[in-house]
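Weekly puzzle thread! Below is a chain. First person to post its structure in token form gets bragging rights.
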Amino acid sequence: MARKIRGRLLVIAALTLLSTAAPASAMVGGKPGGGGGASWRTIGHDAADTRSTNDHKINAKNVGRLAPRWIATTAGDVSATPVVAHHAVYFPDWGGMLW
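Winning reply:
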């Protein structure tokens, strides 16, 4: 029981930290999201929640060649929007874990 509560508190703390840092990191160079595609430092990609990027590496010609590069077994269902920063993906699950 204490482990579940500690895990949930960790998720809440991380999401609080991310939400307070979001406005500062959402604007880079006067453009929401900074125009780059490598990092999604705010949930939804930018302050406008566009959930899009200027990265066009995936297109109609190569989408059929996509394949999983990794699979993660989580402690519970995942329904949250991930945050991507410094080549890492962060997301909480319903099992109380922050990955």
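Puzzle host: Confirmed. Bonus trivia for everyone else. The beta strands are 27-28, 31-32, 83-85, 88-90.
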